[in-house]
Amino acid sequence: MTSRLLFGRTALAVFVSLSVAGCSVTPKQFTNQEILSQAAENADEINKDVAPINGPIDLNEAFARTIKYNRDSRLKAFEAVVSQGQLAVDKFDMLPELAAKAGYNHRNNYAASASVTFSGDEPSSLGSNPSYSVSSDKSTVNASIGATWDILDFGLSYYRAKQQADRFLISKERERKVVHSIMEQSRNAYYRAVSAERLLSKINPLIVKARAALVDSAKIEKLRAQSPMEALTYQRSLLETLRTLQDIRKDLMPAKTELAILMGLNPAVNFELADVNNPNSDIPVLNVDMSSMERTALVLRPELREAQYQERITQEEVHSAFLSLFPSLSLSAGLNYNDSDYLRYNDWTSAGVGLNWNLMNVFRYGKLDKLNDLKIAAGKQRSLATSMAVISQVHIADIQFKESNDTYALATQYYDVAQRIKAQVDSSRTAQSIGDLTVIREDLNALLAELRRDVAYADLQNNFGRVLVSMGLDPLPEGFGNMSLEDLSTAFNNMFARWEQGDIEVISAEEMQSALAAKSVAEK
Fold first, then answer.
1. Full-prediction pTM beyond 0.90?
2. Among 12, 40, 48, 500, which residue carries the largest CB count within 10 Å?
Protein backbone atom coordinates (compact mmCIF):
# COMPACT_ATOMS: atom_id res chain seq x y z
CA MET A 1 0.00 0.00 0.00
CA THR A 2 2.85 2.34 0.90
CA SER A 3 4.64 1.67 -2.39
CA ARG A 4 1.50 2.41 -4.35
CA LEU A 5 1.01 5.72 -2.55
CA LEU A 6 4.64 6.61 -3.17
CA PHE A 7 4.28 5.81 -6.87
CA GLY A 8 1.08 7.90 -7.13
CA ARG A 9 2.70 10.87 -5.43
CA THR A 10 5.74 10.62 -7.68
CA ALA A 11 3.57 10.56 -10.81
CA LEU A 12 1.56 13.54 -9.55
CA ALA A 13 4.74 15.51 -8.84
CA VAL A 14 6.10 14.81 -12.31
CA PHE A 15 2.79 15.87 -13.88
CA VAL A 16 2.68 19.13 -11.89
CA SER A 17 6.32 19.92 -12.76
CA LEU A 18 5.69 19.43 -16.46
CA SER A 19 2.53 21.58 -16.31
CA VAL A 20 4.39 24.43 -14.57
CA ALA A 21 7.22 24.20 -17.10
CA GLY A 22 4.72 24.40 -19.96
CA CYS A 23 3.18 27.58 -18.50
CA SER A 24 6.53 29.29 -17.90
CA VAL A 25 7.21 30.26 -21.54
CA THR A 26 7.94 34.01 -21.84
CA PRO A 27 8.52 36.24 -24.90
CA LYS A 28 12.16 36.27 -25.98
CA GLN A 29 13.42 39.21 -28.01
CA PHE A 30 16.10 38.83 -30.66
CA THR A 31 19.49 40.03 -29.46
CA ASN A 32 21.28 42.85 -31.25
CA GLN A 33 23.81 40.32 -32.55
CA GLU A 34 21.03 38.17 -34.06
CA ILE A 35 19.42 41.21 -35.70
CA LEU A 36 22.76 42.40 -37.07
CA SER A 37 23.58 38.98 -38.51
CA GLN A 38 20.14 38.75 -40.14
CA ALA A 39 20.53 42.24 -41.62
CA ALA A 40 23.98 41.33 -42.99
CA GLU A 41 22.56 38.15 -44.51
CA ASN A 42 19.71 40.08 -46.15
CA ALA A 43 22.15 42.66 -47.53
CA ASP A 44 24.23 39.88 -49.10
CA GLU A 45 21.15 38.19 -50.56
CA ILE A 46 19.89 41.42 -52.17
CA ASN A 47 23.03 41.77 -54.28
CA LYS A 48 23.46 38.06 -54.89
CA ASP A 49 23.04 36.53 -58.37
CA VAL A 50 22.55 39.94 -60.05
CA ALA A 51 24.37 40.10 -63.40
CA PRO A 52 27.06 42.81 -63.58
CA ILE A 53 26.50 45.89 -65.72
CA ASN A 54 28.73 45.76 -68.79
CA GLY A 55 27.58 48.88 -70.63
CA PRO A 56 24.74 51.36 -71.09
CA ILE A 57 21.34 49.84 -70.30
CA ASP A 58 18.65 50.15 -72.98
CA LEU A 59 14.91 49.64 -72.52
CA ASN A 60 15.03 45.93 -73.42
CA GLU A 61 17.80 45.21 -70.92
CA ALA A 62 15.81 47.15 -68.33
CA PHE A 63 12.86 44.83 -69.06
CA ALA A 64 15.10 41.76 -68.81
CA ARG A 65 16.63 42.86 -65.50
CA THR A 66 13.19 43.69 -64.11
CA ILE A 67 11.88 40.22 -64.95
CA LYS A 68 14.93 38.34 -63.65
CA TYR A 69 15.81 40.35 -60.55
CA ASN A 70 12.72 42.28 -59.42
CA ARG A 71 11.75 41.16 -55.92
CA ASP A 72 7.96 41.44 -56.46
CA SER A 73 8.24 39.26 -59.56
CA ARG A 74 10.29 36.70 -57.67
CA LEU A 75 7.79 36.70 -54.81
CA LYS A 76 4.89 35.88 -57.14
CA ALA A 77 6.97 33.16 -58.79
CA PHE A 78 7.65 31.63 -55.37
CA GLU A 79 3.94 31.82 -54.50
CA ALA A 80 3.19 29.84 -57.67
CA VAL A 81 5.81 27.24 -56.69
CA VAL A 82 4.32 26.99 -53.17
CA SER A 83 0.86 26.52 -54.68
CA GLN A 84 2.21 23.74 -56.90
CA GLY A 85 3.80 22.10 -53.85
CA GLN A 86 0.48 22.29 -52.01
CA LEU A 87 -1.16 20.55 -54.97
CA ALA A 88 1.35 17.70 -54.72
CA VAL A 89 0.64 17.40 -50.98
CA ASP A 90 -3.15 17.43 -51.42
CA LYS A 91 -2.96 14.47 -53.81
CA PHE A 92 -1.88 12.27 -50.87
CA ASP A 93 -5.23 12.96 -49.15
CA MET A 94 -6.87 10.67 -51.72
CA LEU A 95 -4.73 7.69 -50.62
CA PRO A 96 -5.70 5.34 -47.76
CA GLU A 97 -4.45 6.24 -44.31
CA LEU A 98 -1.61 3.87 -43.43
CA ALA A 99 -0.75 3.98 -39.71
CA ALA A 100 1.98 2.11 -37.83
CA LYS A 101 1.73 1.93 -34.05
CA ALA A 102 3.94 0.46 -31.34
CA GLY A 103 3.80 0.66 -27.57
CA TYR A 104 5.05 -0.62 -24.26
CA ASN A 105 2.78 -0.92 -21.19
CA HIS A 106 3.80 -1.63 -17.62
CA ARG A 107 2.02 -1.74 -14.27
CA ASN A 108 3.41 -2.45 -10.81
CA ASN A 109 1.15 -5.46 -10.23
CA TYR A 110 -0.92 -7.92 -12.20
CA ALA A 111 -4.39 -7.00 -13.41
CA ALA A 112 -5.94 -9.83 -11.46
CA SER A 113 -9.73 -10.05 -11.42
CA ALA A 114 -12.47 -12.28 -10.11
CA SER A 115 -15.86 -13.13 -11.56
CA VAL A 116 -19.17 -14.34 -10.17
CA THR A 117 -22.29 -15.76 -11.66
CA PHE A 118 -25.27 -13.59 -12.42
CA SER A 119 -28.59 -14.89 -11.14
CA GLY A 120 -31.83 -13.08 -11.84
CA ASP A 121 -31.16 -9.36 -11.82
CA GLU A 122 -28.34 -9.44 -9.24
CA PRO A 123 -24.77 -10.80 -9.27
CA SER A 124 -23.88 -13.52 -6.77
CA SER A 125 -21.86 -12.66 -3.68
CA LEU A 126 -18.10 -12.44 -4.16
CA GLY A 127 -17.47 -14.33 -0.95
CA SER A 128 -14.69 -14.00 1.59
CA ASN A 129 -12.11 -15.97 -0.38
CA PRO A 130 -12.67 -15.19 -4.07
CA SER A 131 -10.64 -16.84 -6.79
CA TYR A 132 -8.70 -14.36 -8.94
CA SER A 133 -7.49 -14.91 -12.48
CA VAL A 134 -4.93 -13.15 -14.63
CA SER A 135 -5.07 -12.70 -18.42
CA SER A 136 -2.23 -10.23 -19.06
CA ASP A 137 1.40 -9.64 -18.08
CA LYS A 138 2.65 -6.74 -16.01
CA SER A 139 4.62 -5.57 -19.05
CA THR A 140 3.50 -5.95 -22.64
CA VAL A 141 4.83 -4.88 -26.02
CA ASN A 142 2.33 -4.31 -28.81
CA ALA A 143 2.57 -3.19 -32.42
CA SER A 144 0.22 -2.82 -35.36
CA ILE A 145 0.15 -1.54 -38.89
CA GLY A 146 -3.16 -0.84 -40.56
CA ALA A 147 -4.78 0.90 -43.48
CA THR A 148 -8.05 2.81 -43.33
CA TRP A 149 -9.80 4.17 -46.37
CA ASP A 150 -12.90 6.32 -46.20
CA ILE A 151 -14.74 6.37 -49.53
CA LEU A 152 -16.43 9.69 -48.75
CA ASP A 153 -13.11 11.30 -47.73
CA PHE A 154 -11.59 10.04 -50.97
CA GLY A 155 -14.32 11.79 -52.99
CA LEU A 156 -14.00 15.02 -51.01
CA SER A 157 -10.18 14.92 -51.29
CA TYR A 158 -10.51 14.41 -55.04
CA TYR A 159 -12.53 17.62 -55.44
CA ARG A 160 -10.22 19.51 -53.06
CA ALA A 161 -7.22 18.44 -55.14
CA LYS A 162 -8.97 19.69 -58.29
CA GLN A 163 -9.65 23.01 -56.54
CA GLN A 164 -6.00 23.27 -55.52
CA ALA A 165 -4.98 22.58 -59.12
CA ASP A 166 -7.10 25.54 -60.20
CA ARG A 167 -5.61 27.67 -57.42
CA PHE A 168 -2.18 26.85 -58.79
CA LEU A 169 -3.30 28.05 -62.22
CA ILE A 170 -4.70 31.19 -60.59
CA SER A 171 -1.31 31.85 -58.99
CA LYS A 172 0.30 31.58 -62.44
CA GLU A 173 -2.18 34.13 -63.84
CA ARG A 174 -1.44 36.46 -60.94
CA GLU A 175 2.24 36.06 -61.71
CA ARG A 176 1.48 37.10 -65.31
CA LYS A 177 -0.39 40.14 -64.05
CA VAL A 178 2.53 41.15 -61.82
CA VAL A 179 4.88 40.79 -64.80
CA HIS A 180 2.61 43.04 -66.90
CA SER A 181 2.45 45.58 -64.08
CA ILE A 182 6.18 45.77 -63.32
CA MET A 183 7.06 45.96 -67.02
CA GLU A 184 4.66 48.88 -67.36
CA GLN A 185 6.34 50.50 -64.35
CA SER A 186 9.76 49.72 -65.82
CA ARG A 187 8.90 51.38 -69.13
CA ASN A 188 7.66 54.49 -67.34
CA ALA A 189 10.67 54.62 -64.99
CA TYR A 190 13.13 54.12 -67.86
CA TYR A 191 11.89 57.07 -69.89
CA ARG A 192 11.68 59.27 -66.80
CA ALA A 193 15.26 58.32 -65.95
CA VAL A 194 16.38 59.13 -69.51
CA SER A 195 14.72 62.55 -69.30
CA ALA A 196 16.34 63.13 -65.91
CA GLU A 197 19.81 62.25 -67.21
CA ARG A 198 19.44 64.51 -70.24
CA LEU A 199 17.88 67.48 -68.48
CA LEU A 200 19.65 67.54 -65.12
CA SER A 201 22.91 68.34 -66.87
CA LYS A 202 21.18 71.42 -68.32
CA ILE A 203 19.19 72.41 -65.23
CA ASN A 204 22.12 72.76 -62.85
CA PRO A 205 24.10 75.30 -65.00
CA LEU A 206 20.88 77.26 -65.52
CA ILE A 207 20.29 77.38 -61.74
CA VAL A 208 23.85 78.64 -61.25
CA LYS A 209 23.32 81.34 -63.92
CA ALA A 210 20.00 82.45 -62.36
CA ARG A 211 21.54 82.68 -58.87
CA ALA A 212 24.47 84.72 -60.21
CA ALA A 213 22.02 87.09 -61.93
CA LEU A 214 20.09 87.37 -58.67
CA VAL A 215 23.26 88.35 -56.78
CA ASP A 216 24.14 90.93 -59.46
CA SER A 217 20.64 92.39 -59.28
CA ALA A 218 20.90 92.73 -55.50
CA LYS A 219 24.20 94.60 -55.89
CA ILE A 220 22.69 96.94 -58.50
CA GLU A 221 19.76 97.59 -56.14
CA LYS A 222 22.13 98.56 -53.32
CA LEU A 223 24.06 100.89 -55.61
CA ARG A 224 20.68 102.42 -56.69
CA ALA A 225 21.76 102.03 -60.32
CA GLN A 226 18.12 101.31 -61.22
CA SER A 227 14.76 102.03 -59.61
CA PRO A 228 13.84 99.82 -56.62
CA MET A 229 10.58 98.66 -58.26
CA GLU A 230 12.37 97.61 -61.44
CA ALA A 231 15.10 95.79 -59.47
CA LEU A 232 12.56 93.97 -57.26
CA THR A 233 10.44 92.94 -60.24
CA TYR A 234 13.56 91.59 -61.92
CA GLN A 235 14.51 89.65 -58.78
CA ARG A 236 10.98 88.23 -58.45
CA SER A 237 11.15 86.92 -62.02
CA LEU A 238 14.52 85.31 -61.29
CA LEU A 239 13.20 83.72 -58.10
CA GLU A 240 10.16 82.30 -59.94
CA THR A 241 12.54 80.85 -62.52
CA LEU A 242 14.67 79.31 -59.77
CA ARG A 243 11.60 77.82 -58.10
CA THR A 244 10.47 76.27 -61.38
CA LEU A 245 13.93 74.81 -62.02
CA GLN A 246 14.18 73.38 -58.51
CA ASP A 247 10.70 71.81 -58.79
CA ILE A 248 11.73 70.14 -62.05
CA ARG A 249 14.97 68.90 -60.51
CA LYS A 250 13.17 67.57 -57.43
CA ASP A 251 10.80 65.60 -59.68
CA LEU A 252 13.58 64.17 -61.87
CA MET A 253 16.18 63.32 -59.21
CA PRO A 254 14.61 60.04 -57.93
CA ALA A 255 13.83 58.69 -61.44
CA LYS A 256 17.06 56.73 -61.88
CA THR A 257 16.86 55.33 -58.36
CA GLU A 258 13.31 54.10 -59.00
CA LEU A 259 14.50 52.36 -62.16
CA ALA A 260 17.41 50.74 -60.30
CA ILE A 261 15.04 49.35 -57.65
CA LEU A 262 12.74 47.91 -60.32
CA MET A 263 15.73 46.21 -61.97
CA GLY A 264 16.82 44.69 -58.65
CA LEU A 265 19.93 46.87 -58.40
CA ASN A 266 21.23 48.57 -55.32
CA PRO A 267 20.31 52.28 -55.71
CA ALA A 268 23.95 53.16 -55.03
CA VAL A 269 25.11 51.29 -58.16
CA ASN A 270 26.16 53.64 -60.96
CA PHE A 271 24.98 52.83 -64.49
CA GLU A 272 24.36 54.59 -67.80
CA LEU A 273 21.25 54.65 -69.96
CA ALA A 274 21.59 54.01 -73.68
CA ASP A 275 18.92 56.51 -74.78
CA VAL A 276 20.49 59.52 -73.06
CA ASN A 277 22.88 60.34 -75.89
CA ASN A 278 20.85 58.65 -78.65
CA PRO A 279 17.21 59.26 -77.74
CA ASN A 280 14.65 57.01 -79.40
CA SER A 281 11.93 58.87 -81.27
CA ASP A 282 10.25 55.99 -83.13
CA ILE A 283 6.47 56.19 -82.96
CA PRO A 284 4.70 52.84 -82.34
CA VAL A 285 2.07 51.78 -84.88
CA LEU A 286 -1.25 50.34 -83.73
CA ASN A 287 -3.31 49.14 -86.66
CA VAL A 288 -5.61 46.72 -84.80
CA ASP A 289 -9.36 47.33 -84.91
CA MET A 290 -11.28 47.62 -81.67
CA SER A 291 -13.25 44.37 -82.09
CA SER A 292 -10.03 42.37 -82.40
CA MET A 293 -8.61 44.14 -79.35
CA GLU A 294 -11.72 43.29 -77.32
CA ARG A 295 -11.69 39.62 -78.36
CA THR A 296 -7.98 39.30 -77.60
CA ALA A 297 -8.44 40.87 -74.16
CA LEU A 298 -11.38 38.56 -73.32
CA VAL A 299 -9.20 35.55 -74.11
CA LEU A 300 -5.77 36.56 -72.77
CA ARG A 301 -6.29 38.89 -69.80
CA PRO A 302 -5.07 37.19 -66.58
CA GLU A 303 -7.97 38.64 -64.54
CA LEU A 304 -10.51 36.91 -66.77
CA ARG A 305 -8.66 33.62 -66.74
CA GLU A 306 -8.48 33.87 -62.96
CA ALA A 307 -12.25 34.49 -62.85
CA GLN A 308 -12.82 31.40 -65.01
CA TYR A 309 -10.68 29.24 -62.74
CA GLN A 310 -12.47 30.68 -59.72
CA GLU A 311 -15.79 29.79 -61.35
CA ARG A 312 -14.57 26.22 -61.79
CA ILE A 313 -13.46 26.13 -58.13
CA THR A 314 -17.01 27.11 -57.20
CA GLN A 315 -18.35 24.25 -59.32
CA GLU A 316 -16.06 21.79 -57.55
CA GLU A 317 -17.15 23.23 -54.21
CA VAL A 318 -20.76 22.58 -55.20
CA HIS A 319 -19.90 18.96 -56.06
CA SER A 320 -18.05 18.41 -52.78
CA ALA A 321 -20.90 19.97 -50.78
CA PHE A 322 -23.39 17.64 -52.48
CA LEU A 323 -21.10 14.64 -51.91
CA SER A 324 -20.87 15.41 -48.18
CA LEU A 325 -24.58 14.55 -47.86
CA PHE A 326 -23.89 10.87 -48.62
CA PRO A 327 -23.05 8.18 -46.01
CA SER A 328 -19.42 7.66 -45.07
CA LEU A 329 -18.21 4.14 -45.89
CA SER A 330 -14.83 3.21 -44.40
CA LEU A 331 -12.73 0.10 -45.04
CA SER A 332 -9.96 -1.01 -42.69
CA ALA A 333 -7.38 -3.77 -42.53
CA GLY A 334 -4.36 -4.33 -40.33
CA LEU A 335 -1.62 -6.55 -38.92
CA ASN A 336 -1.33 -6.73 -35.10
CA TYR A 337 1.14 -8.14 -32.55
CA ASN A 338 1.20 -8.47 -28.74
CA ASP A 339 3.86 -10.39 -26.77
CA SER A 340 1.56 -11.35 -23.86
CA ASP A 341 2.13 -14.96 -22.71
CA TYR A 342 -1.56 -15.25 -21.97
CA LEU A 343 -2.58 -14.91 -25.61
CA ARG A 344 -2.82 -18.05 -27.69
CA TYR A 345 -2.03 -16.11 -30.87
CA ASN A 346 0.41 -13.28 -30.48
CA ASP A 347 -0.09 -11.94 -34.02
CA TRP A 348 -3.26 -11.64 -36.02
CA THR A 349 -4.86 -9.79 -38.92
CA SER A 350 -8.02 -7.74 -38.78
CA ALA A 351 -10.45 -6.25 -41.27
CA GLY A 352 -13.59 -4.18 -40.98
CA VAL A 353 -16.24 -2.17 -42.73
CA GLY A 354 -17.97 0.85 -41.18
CA LEU A 355 -20.91 2.99 -42.25
CA ASN A 356 -21.74 6.39 -40.83
CA TRP A 357 -24.53 8.66 -42.01
CA ASN A 358 -25.94 11.83 -40.54
CA LEU A 359 -29.65 11.48 -41.21
CA MET A 360 -30.17 15.23 -40.77
CA ASN A 361 -28.43 15.68 -44.13
CA VAL A 362 -31.71 14.62 -45.77
CA PHE A 363 -33.28 17.88 -44.58
CA ARG A 364 -30.26 19.95 -45.65
CA TYR A 365 -30.44 18.90 -49.29
CA GLY A 366 -33.03 21.46 -50.46
CA LYS A 367 -31.33 24.43 -48.78
CA LEU A 368 -27.91 23.31 -49.94
CA ASP A 369 -29.12 22.96 -53.52
CA LYS A 370 -30.45 26.55 -53.52
CA LEU A 371 -27.21 27.84 -51.96
CA ASN A 372 -25.14 26.09 -54.63
CA ASP A 373 -27.24 27.63 -57.40
CA LEU A 374 -26.67 31.07 -55.86
CA LYS A 375 -22.90 30.49 -55.68
CA ILE A 376 -22.77 29.50 -59.35
CA ALA A 377 -24.86 32.49 -60.37
CA ALA A 378 -22.70 34.85 -58.28
CA GLY A 379 -19.53 33.43 -59.89
CA LYS A 380 -21.00 33.99 -63.34
CA GLN A 381 -21.92 37.58 -62.52
CA ARG A 382 -18.42 38.17 -61.16
CA SER A 383 -16.94 36.89 -64.41
CA LEU A 384 -19.26 39.13 -66.47
CA ALA A 385 -18.37 42.17 -64.34
CA THR A 386 -14.66 41.48 -64.85
CA SER A 387 -15.23 41.10 -68.61
CA MET A 388 -16.97 44.47 -68.74
CA ALA A 389 -14.14 46.11 -66.80
CA VAL A 390 -11.58 44.59 -69.17
CA ILE A 391 -13.41 45.85 -72.27
CA SER A 392 -13.62 49.33 -70.70
CA GLN A 393 -9.87 49.31 -70.04
CA VAL A 394 -9.18 48.36 -73.67
CA HIS A 395 -11.24 51.31 -74.93
CA ILE A 396 -9.65 53.75 -72.46
CA ALA A 397 -6.12 52.55 -73.34
CA ASP A 398 -6.84 52.99 -77.07
CA ILE A 399 -8.19 56.52 -76.54
CA GLN A 400 -5.19 57.49 -74.40
CA PHE A 401 -2.74 56.14 -77.00
CA LYS A 402 -4.35 58.13 -79.81
CA GLU A 403 -4.41 61.28 -77.69
CA SER A 404 -0.75 60.81 -76.70
CA ASN A 405 0.16 60.68 -80.41
CA ASP A 406 -1.37 64.13 -80.90
CA THR A 407 0.21 65.43 -77.70
CA TYR A 408 3.67 64.25 -78.76
CA ALA A 409 3.31 65.83 -82.21
CA LEU A 410 2.32 69.15 -80.62
CA ALA A 411 5.12 68.95 -78.03
CA THR A 412 7.66 68.28 -80.79
CA GLN A 413 6.44 71.30 -82.76
CA TYR A 414 6.54 73.46 -79.63
CA TYR A 415 10.10 72.30 -78.90
CA ASP A 416 11.24 73.25 -82.43
CA VAL A 417 9.78 76.75 -82.04
CA ALA A 418 11.36 77.15 -78.57
CA GLN A 419 14.75 76.15 -79.97
CA ARG A 420 14.49 78.71 -82.79
CA ILE A 421 13.51 81.43 -80.29
CA LYS A 422 16.47 80.46 -78.10
CA ALA A 423 18.79 80.75 -81.12
CA GLN A 424 17.45 84.26 -81.80
CA VAL A 425 17.94 85.25 -78.15
CA ASP A 426 21.49 83.87 -78.12
CA SER A 427 22.30 85.94 -81.21
CA SER A 428 20.84 89.07 -79.60
CA ARG A 429 22.75 88.33 -76.39
CA THR A 430 26.00 88.19 -78.37
CA ALA A 431 25.17 91.63 -79.77
CA GLN A 432 24.53 92.89 -76.17
CA SER A 433 21.01 93.99 -77.13
CA ILE A 434 19.11 92.05 -74.39
CA GLY A 435 19.66 91.38 -70.68
CA ASP A 436 20.41 88.26 -68.65
CA LEU A 437 16.80 87.81 -67.51
CA THR A 438 15.55 87.38 -71.07
CA VAL A 439 18.34 84.88 -71.82
CA ILE A 440 17.64 82.90 -68.65
CA ARG A 441 13.88 82.97 -69.27
CA GLU A 442 14.27 81.65 -72.82
CA ASP A 443 16.77 79.04 -71.67
CA LEU A 444 14.14 77.92 -69.16
CA ASN A 445 11.42 77.90 -71.84
CA ALA A 446 13.63 75.79 -74.10
CA LEU A 447 14.36 73.43 -71.21
CA LEU A 448 10.67 73.13 -70.35
CA ALA A 449 9.86 72.52 -74.01
CA GLU A 450 12.42 69.71 -74.11
CA LEU A 451 11.03 68.27 -70.89
CA ARG A 452 7.47 68.38 -72.24
CA ARG A 453 8.60 66.65 -75.41
CA ASP A 454 10.37 63.92 -73.44
CA VAL A 455 7.39 63.49 -71.15
CA ALA A 456 5.05 63.37 -74.15
CA TYR A 457 7.18 60.67 -75.77
CA ALA A 458 7.32 58.73 -72.51
CA ASP A 459 3.51 58.99 -72.27
CA LEU A 460 3.25 57.79 -75.86
CA GLN A 461 5.37 54.73 -75.10
CA ASN A 462 3.61 54.11 -71.79
CA ASN A 463 0.18 54.30 -73.38
CA PHE A 464 1.30 51.92 -76.13
CA GLY A 465 2.46 49.53 -73.43
CA ARG A 466 -0.87 50.03 -71.63
CA VAL A 467 -2.70 49.00 -74.82
CA LEU A 468 -0.64 45.81 -74.96
CA VAL A 469 -1.34 45.10 -71.28
CA SER A 470 -5.07 45.82 -71.69
CA MET A 471 -5.15 43.19 -74.47
CA GLY A 472 -3.38 40.68 -72.22
CA LEU A 473 -0.48 40.18 -74.63
CA ASP A 474 2.31 38.25 -72.96
CA PRO A 475 5.66 40.04 -73.31
CA LEU A 476 7.56 37.06 -71.94
CA PRO A 477 9.05 34.60 -74.46
CA GLU A 478 8.66 30.85 -73.97
CA GLY A 479 11.17 29.38 -71.53
CA PHE A 480 12.21 32.79 -70.22
CA GLY A 481 13.07 31.34 -66.80
CA ASN A 482 16.11 29.54 -68.20
CA MET A 483 17.31 32.36 -70.47
CA SER A 484 20.36 34.46 -69.75
CA LEU A 485 20.09 38.22 -69.34
CA GLU A 486 21.48 38.83 -72.84
CA ASP A 487 19.15 36.30 -74.50
CA LEU A 488 16.14 37.68 -72.67
CA SER A 489 17.06 41.24 -73.66
CA THR A 490 17.38 40.18 -77.30
CA ALA A 491 14.04 38.39 -77.16
CA PHE A 492 12.37 41.55 -75.79
CA ASN A 493 14.02 43.64 -78.50
CA ASN A 494 12.69 41.38 -81.28
CA MET A 495 9.23 41.12 -79.79
CA PHE A 496 8.68 44.82 -79.11
CA ALA A 497 10.18 45.81 -82.46
CA ARG A 498 7.60 43.58 -84.12
CA TRP A 499 4.75 44.93 -81.98
CA GLU A 500 5.76 48.59 -82.52
CA GLN A 501 5.58 48.00 -86.28
CA GLY A 502 1.98 46.85 -85.91
CA ASP A 503 2.65 43.10 -86.13
CA ILE A 504 0.37 42.02 -83.28
CA GLU A 505 -1.30 38.60 -83.15
CA VAL A 506 -4.96 38.90 -82.19
CA ILE A 507 -7.89 36.54 -81.71
CA SER A 508 -10.09 36.42 -84.82
CA ALA A 509 -13.88 36.26 -84.85
CA GLU A 510 -13.70 32.84 -86.54
CA GLU A 511 -11.64 31.42 -83.66
CA MET A 512 -14.13 32.77 -81.14
CA GLN A 513 -17.16 31.33 -83.00
CA SER A 514 -15.44 27.97 -83.51
CA ALA A 515 -14.69 27.67 -79.78
CA LEU A 516 -18.29 28.60 -78.90
CA ALA A 517 -19.66 25.98 -81.28
CA ALA A 518 -17.35 23.31 -79.85
CA LYS A 519 -18.54 24.15 -76.32
CA SER A 520 -22.19 23.86 -77.36
CA VAL A 521 -21.56 20.43 -78.87
CA ALA A 522 -19.71 19.25 -75.75
CA GLU A 523 -22.53 20.40 -73.46
CA LYS A 524 -25.10 18.45 -75.51
1. no
2. 500
